[in-house]
Design goal:
This is Holliday junction branch migration complex subunit RuvA. The chain is of the alpha+beta class. The chain is built from 10 helices and 5 strands, in the order βββαββααααααααα. The protein has 3 domains: 60 residues, OB fold (Dihydrolipoamide Acetyltransferase, E2P) (Beta Barrel), CATH 2.40.50; 71 residues, 5' to 3' exonuclease, C-terminal subdomain (DNA polymerase, domain 1, Orthogonal Bundle); 68 residues, no CATH class. β2 and β3 form a beta hairpin.
């Protein structure tokens, strides 16, 4: 299994790139989004890869992150989803969007990928919904900050509600200054699971909070929003 290729970028074509590593040129198929993010030919680069084996064909598919690679692997485990279709889904939605679409049952988003019809989109959602939280957590590896505890979230929320009104402040505040949206979602998911919520329910709540357009993309804000959604009605 070839899990990662690091070397010098030789060229970029319409649907693949060639990376030379240790004197060997690897043809790696990737989504347009991944190809557009590669450096200029001649510069060093690296991609995580998935080797797809067929009776008469060997193909490498490349991804910038482990989460995207794992989504591709899971998608191809669904009957009717080939490596090209899986690449189209992840390439269109991105790893965070793929996870959000699957845990929230948004088959319309999945159907936007070329070659994915309504029945196949529904099958993808049904078969992968329980597996999605694990892959979503991969998105925060390498940029993960400690997730706030429930008591910290409650204290912060109470303080904000009881403090005297001050001048308006910028709405979003970065976690530790530089955490990505994916890392914030992964942190929030991990915190909720550690608090005892089922992983599938926590993933849905975090995904919906991240997609509502109102919740700042920080771990604490996502946890607060998810806790409100998970609270008994």
């Amino acid at each position: 299994m070839i899990g990662k290729v690091s070397g010098r970028l030789d060229y970029i074509a319409e649907d693949h790139a060639l990376i030379e590593a240790a004197g060997v040129g690897y043809v790696i198929y990737a989504s347009p989004r991944t190809l557009a993010a590669l450096p200029q030919p001649g510069e060093p680069c690296a991609l995580y890869t998935e080797l797809v084996v067929r009776e008469d064909l060997l193909q490498l598919f490349g991804f910038p992150t482990l989460a995207e690679k794992e989504w591709h692997r899971l998608l191809t485990s669904v009957q009717g989803v080939g490596p090209r279709s899986a690449l189209a889904i992840v390439g269109l939605l991105g790893p965070e969007g793929t996870g959000r679409a699957i845990v929230t049952g948004d088959t319309a988003a999945v159907r936007k990928a070329p070659g994915v019809g309504p029945k196949l989109a529904q099958r993808i959602v049904l078969e992968l919904r329980d597996k999605a939280p694990t892959v979503m957590a991969l998105g925060g590896r390498g940029a993960r900050a400690a997730a706030p505890t429930l008591s910290a979230v409650v204290d912060e929320t109470t303080e904000a509600a009881t403090a005297p009104k001050r001048a308006a402040k910028p709405r979003a505040r970065p976690d530790d200054g530089a955490a990505s949206a994916a890392a914030a979602q992964a942190d929030a998911l991990s915190a909720l699971v550690n608090l005892g919520y089922p992983e599938s329910q926590a993933a849905v709540a975090v995904a919906e909070a991240a997609a509502d357009g109102e919740t700042p993309p920080t771990s604490a804000a996502l946890i607060r929003a998810a806790l409100r959604a998970l609270a008994p009605k």
